[in-house]
Amino acid sequence: MPLPNSFYTAQQVKQGEVQAAKAKGLEMFSLMERAGQAVFTIALAQYPSAHHWLVCCGGGNNGGDGYIAACLAKSMGHQVTVWQIGDPEKLKGDALTAYYHWLDHGGDVYPIDDRIPRDVDLILDGLMGTGLNGPVREPVSDVIDTINQSGKPVVAIDIPSGLSADTGAVLGKAVRAQHTISFIGLKQGLVTGEARNYVGKLHFAGLGVSESFDEQNIPTLKAIDSRVMKLFLPRRAASSHKGNHGKALLIGGNAGMGGAMMLSAQACSRVGCGLTAALVHPENTTAMLISAPEVMCAGWDDERLAQRLDWSVVIGLGPGLGRDEQSQHLFDVVTKSDKPKVVDADALFLLAHSPNYDDKRILTPHSAEAARLLGASVDLVEADRFKAVTALQQKYGGVVVLKGAGTLVCDGNETFVCLAGNPGMATGGMGDVLTGVITSLLAQGLTLFNAAKAGVLIHSQAADKDAELKGERGLLASDLLPHLRTLVN
């Protein structure tokens, strides 16, 4: 079942689930029972041969969900061991009721141990919930270490313990889960940054109240719709010609960096731009013409620059641009243009040193480039990617694409996340291809925001398609090119 497209803060879900349950005439304990049932069902489906389950419970409602799942597993004949942080008799509300429910089923509760029984073959993580906002402390941190070092598969209840539900940052330590089941409203921190290392496969259970919850709450984050190409690139008219599909100008490819422009220009053409031109360092023109004869390539002297700026409808600046005097000159000239722009790579370095605001451009920084643009550290950017992408947009204008695991796209009013992509994309040239893709979509008439969203998604989908065929390791930026063409069709 596909995940919902909307994401929320932890506080929204905490308050909204009460209202949603009330609207449906449900007691909160009924939601806990449904959550425990969902955890059991998904865990059983993923690990049908697991016979000994270890359920780790904390002091909150996640622990209560764990007790319900433990009851169901025990009733199915599984061996179930329950660990409880602290005194279970001090649990409160529905979690205490769930604990007594477990006792009524003949279950035992044990204090935490520093060793997991050897015959345990599945762990349920219900140690900590979405309310965590400070570093994990002992004894929970020790249990997290024990779980992570065990090598056993883990199913996390609502969120892997130790993750921030709002930012996805690891608060000291976090459980590495193979599967995570989130309830009622997906938490925005589950899908970007460090969280992608800990969540594993994300599942969703609405518990019968998600529609009511969605009606009452405005999402803080949305996923880029997988139907994006059908929405934004309709079928072309039979009588169309190349002039109908945009004129894109790409500028970069300094000495020794021509490959960046080759990748960007080919991506621009493969995604369907009618006419693509490239201005590069003169020593790279021959190689460009050989690798991409469809691209009108020339050296970047001032006369050609002026001609192509006047000719084009959109400009892509940065792939292999360099940081010398000529690069600065090109940057300065393009910055004065009022045409839509995509700014990446070395152009972002130059922008950081001479900041300006422009509502007609898309910036595509990775976390290190974002940190330079904000005058901050990479750690600070990754600690709250939502805050960082918003700050970039407010400072520089236009649309900002904050690349990385769970790439974010922000226009100042809305933020979207890309759920596609894989670790194989962590290789040189990927950003150059993305610049070409987005520039092409802009040239074909998409708005800044739609071009950024669509470009990010099909770029990641292309990488996923190739990784499915040949694996993630060794994935090259040029491997995306044939898949791009398939995706836009």
> Could you say how many structural domains there are in total?
2
CATH homologous group name of the largest domain:
Ribokinase
Based on secondary structure, the structural category is: alpha/beta
Biggest pleated-sheet summary: 12 strands, mixed
Average pLDDT confidence is 96
CATH architecture of the largest domain: 3-Layer(aba) Sandwich
How many β-strand stretches? 19
Name the poorly predicted regions.
none
Helix segment tally: 18
CATH topology of the largest domain: UDP-N-acetylmuramoyl-L-alanine:D-glutamate ligase
Rg, please?
26 Å
Query: End-to-end distance, in Å?
Result: 25 Å
Level of helix content? 40-55%
Strand content: 15-25%
Shape verdict: elongated
In CATH, what is the class of the largest domain?
A: Alpha Beta
Strand order of the largest sheet: 8-1-10-19-18-17-16-15-14-11-12-13
Summarize the SSE layout with pairings:
Layout: E1 6-8, H1 10-23, H2 28-46, E2 52-57, H3 61-75, E3 79-84, H4 93-104, E4 109-111, E5 122-126, H5 140-150, E6 154-157, E7 179-183, E8 186-187, E9 201-205, H6 210-216, E10 221-223, H7 228-232, E11 247-251, H8 258-270, E12 275-280, H9 285-291, E13 296-299, H10 302-311, E14 314-317, H11 325-335, E15 341-343, H12 346-353, E16 361-363, H13 367-374, H14 378-383, H15 385-396, E17 399-402, E18 408-410, E19 415-417, H16 430-443, H17 448-470, H18 481-488
Helix pairs in contact: 1-6, 2-3, 2-4, 3-4, 8-16, 12-13, 13-15, 16-17, 17-18
